[in-house]
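Practice set, problem 2.
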Amino acid sequence: MKTVSVAILTAAFLLGCQQNSNSDPSASVTPKSNAASAPAVAASIAAPEAKPEPLVKAAPEPDPSPWTYSEDDDEMRGTTTRFAVNTSLNAINLEFPYQGGSSIRIYLRKKGKGRQEAFFVLDKGQVTCGFEGCYIAVKFDNGPVTRISASESTGGKNDAIFIDNAVQFQQKLLHASKLIVEIPIYEAGRQQFKFDVSQLKWPK
């Protein structure tokens, strides 16, 4: 009789444990962490298609101008003198005391609304007109060689020579890219100098 009672009690105990286990769903379910599910979610999202960038070519930078510009204000007279200067591409070698290479510069000068001037200044050496008369020879681009009437400086400077018809000379400069000029040099004869005269900006 005692053996039957023990068996009944044991069976009842086991039945109760099984019911408790079935009634708690959390006891048999393991929660999934967010970290574990993130890769799967990321993998399921398609990346947007990459669109090709438009091919935009940057505009080439212009070559630096061979001209330099400056202004000189006269406050007393209320005028402004404008200058444009260009240095020759080549230099010549003169005898002592001017050895070491001499280049020449073109100067354009305009004082207010008045007179226009164009002249050449030699870095080292002396410009002279000689017995043939005062002139220089010029060639613009592939044009013909032309004689231009010129004058020595009236200020006593022997390194400068002035073009008589400065306005006409400036107009030709505005439409040219290259210039070769032949100038008389003291004890060196007529010497040639080359210029890049493109990109000139000068009032007409």
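Problem 2, part (b): a different protein.
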Amino acid sequence: MTETIDAQVLPTPIAPLSLLTHGGVLVAAGFTGDPGEMFARLPAKLRALPLNPVDDLGKPARAVRDYLDGDLFALDSVEVDQPGTPTRQRLLAALRAVPPGTTVSYARLAEHAGLPKTAARAAGGACAQNLIAPFVPCHRVLPSVGGFGGYYYGAHVKEWLLGHEKAL
């Protein structure tokens, strides 16, 4: 049996959400109707596999539907895997620990990851390179100076997600 990257696009109230799995583990998710956009951001070893559209990815798709229906912790149950240095992995783990309905600053995220306050820039980089939104909830990180800050899929998507979670 050939290994593949399985992909499904789900409708959401704000934008289509593409989900990509490898061996049942979520390796990419993003607010785009074109899974190829997410596929292009994967590490080379995964891009070497064929992209396989499927009708139902199972648990990740159910988690999205449950999240949209109000179970704000549903995304936490999905296994994810993305590349990164040990520092980046600590930041991504800290991101997953930020509860729905709350926000943190980049500096606070770095602190939660056990990194010095000077690592706020690294926290911003981890958010910018996050391949698995909203499962790794970088939308819950706001600049300490106010506003929404950047978001790969647009500030309007970040604002919608925070509103859905009632974190505004």
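Answer key, part (b): The radius of gyration is 15 Å. The first strand starts at residue 5 and ends at 10.
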